[in-house]
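pinned: reference chain
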Amino acid sequence: MDILLIGILIALLVIGGVIAYFFYKPKKQQRSDSLYTDALNAMIRGDKNTALRLLRDVVKQDSDHIDAYLQLGNILRENSPQQAIKIHQSLTVRPKLSDSLKIDIYQALALDYMRVNNLKFAKREAGQILKIQRRNRWATEFLLQIAEQERDWVQAAQLAKVLQRIQNKQDPAQLAKFQVFEGLDKLASGDTAAAHTSFMKATKICPDYGLPYLHLGDLYEADRDLVKAIENWEKFALLTPEESSKVYTKIESALFDLGRFSEVEKFYRRLLEKDVSNLYALAKLANVLEEKGEHQAALSLVEEALARDESSLHARLMKLKLSLNLATPHELARQIDTMIEFLNKRSSEE
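pinned: its structure tokens
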């Protein structure tokens, strides 16, 4: 009889355990998942306080809810980064984490350390991601950002190459840019020979990238090799028309020193052949023609520019300047009135 009673008691305990498992635990799980969903919705709305409260409730009910801990730390990162680090760091020792979860945790930690400006540890955490997934785009972009911040141009170039392979694209201009930055650092330290080498490497990496030619021209000018200086400045101007005005005075001065000032007009005409909308080059050419006494030719040049873009105040000011000795006071006044109208219109649009 005692054995039978014991057996019945054991059976009741087993049945009770099964009932508790199938009824109590799912309800608890369902409750925490519902709270987590509410927390995510609060985050989407920008209601961080509500999201924090709900996430804390989730982890109290379910200490195994890794995603809730992740989001909790992500919210705390802005104002309490050290607390965020503690939360995310504690997740790294959890057992049986999937690779996907590990990547999310290391990403969160990298951002935490970046928040406190600890670049060494931020790089370490991003490096952990690459150990799991060698071609992880986020980690590569993150490390590239740090390399640029630390002015480690060699590392930046290496990471940029990896990132381009991940993205399945080629961007030689980006690689040339890092080579130029390396050259500028060499130049700042007084190593002009190494700077020259870096700039030349940049032109070989991407011959159509204009920036290295600007600095090569400056180096040649410093060595009084004005012929090569002009050659490189002109390449910069042709390849980078939006910034070409940086070398106008340099080229004019060098040509004057070489006794070749008559070539200035040809230079500006070459620029305009490549980019007819280059108003800076047009204004310079008009000045050259004006100095040569070719007033009407200069004025016609500006009129052509206004025909393409009548709202250009730059061109209108140039026309006004060229008209001072040719137009009547009434005509000059009319030109000024037109410019005032354009200025008023632009102000009202802003």
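why pinned: Residues 18-28 have pLDDT under 50 and may be disordered. The chain is about 80% helix and 0% strand.
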